[in-house]
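Notes to self after the Tuesday call (sharing in case useful).
The group wants a holo model before anyone commits to mutagenesis around the pocket. I volunteered. Ligand is uridine-diphosphate-N-acetylglucosamine. Logging inputs and output together so the record is complete.
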Amino acid sequence: MKPVLCVVGARPNFIKMAPILRAMAAHDPPLPAVLVHTGQHYDHAMSDRLFTALGLPQPVTNLEVGSASHTQQTAEVMRRFEPLLDTHQPSAVLVVGDVNSTLACALVARQRGVPVLHVESGLRSFERSMPEELNRVLTDQMADRLYTTEHSAADNLAREGIAPERVQFVGNVMIDSVVHGLVSASEARQTLRQWGANATLLDAPQGFAVLTLHRPGNVDDADTLRALLQLMGEVAEQLPLLFVTHPRTRASIRRYGLAGLLKHPRMVTLPPQDYLEMLGLVAHARLVLTDSGGLQEETTALGVPCLTLRDSTERPVTVEQGTNTLVGRDREAILRGVQAVLEGRGKCGKVPEGWDGHAAERIVADLYQWLQAA
Ligand code: UD1
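Result:
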């Protein structure tokens, strides 16, 4: 059997791919896989350490594309990825999520007549200004087999003219990783001590909140970021805040001279965390404030209230059924959300269908049949 060429590039891809590779190896018969890392994320904390934490095998190749404009990064992944199709002669290329590497490799495979499999298809924020939205729409147009995490995705795909027989609802592989990782998640106190951070923050009777920010719309503009960080200072007055920073955000804070806004007695700033450390922080948080897609899903699975600092979400099930509330950058809505949590009225929600830790097995069972029939 020819291998499936599996592509990862940025942090959320690693988290989604780990359970898929495990399920491919555990399938009877095993499905051969070749793992390729595009190198979109390259920091030790954003890449190498995550491989270990998630139990991902070492990739056969790292294309080392690094950072650049979206266009340059996408083009560079395409240029470096194409020869791998000759080397490995894959039966299909499997891509996950919505990062630039996802689109780049799907397009190369399509152009070379290799079937494309897309995991996490059909999510739509309906904001074409987001790079991820373009990546999602275009990747789905090119995919031969589309695996979805929530039922809203099938409607989006049907509206875009994608035949329903190409689409398969399987649930959420991100949650497979949560279920797998929870057993060995790090203790929050240990994580803070490890970074020399003030762990007494965790002793506050009201608990603590976790904050992450990295979307270009929130962190690339000086005024927007300043206003958001000032607002987060107000949140910290109510609920101690652990701010886990992304390299993109750190770079903006430095560039715009905003580091002073982080020096709040009830705010602790940490560098990017390993998966198991982050899981430990989030699982024990009273509240999460974020613009990440993955955290909206993880908090829903863990039953932790989440305030999403965006005006839209491509994951509506987290709002309709889960613990997520969209608050954008609206001061009143954010402070109201914090107050609700402090008063024990935080959103509890329920875990959506298929977010049960077995999505990767369902993907691999379908994939095996599909490859046999192809
Ligand atoms: C990318 C994804 C985003 C995903 C996020 C998770 C796209 C369009 N965006 O955003 O969907 O939610 O990853 O983290 O693919 N940088 C480093 N070290 C690294 C990686 C990045 O310092 O290892 C810095 C660089 O300054 C770089 C910036 O972060 O320019 C942005 O990196 P990039 O990969 O372009 O996008 P992310 O913001 O990480």
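Two things stood out.
The pocket of uridine-diphosphate-N-acetylglucosamine is lined by residues 10-12, 40-43, 46-47, 67, 70, 98-100, 131-132, 214, 246-248, 251 (CB under 6 Å).
The two ends are 12 Å apart (CA to CA).
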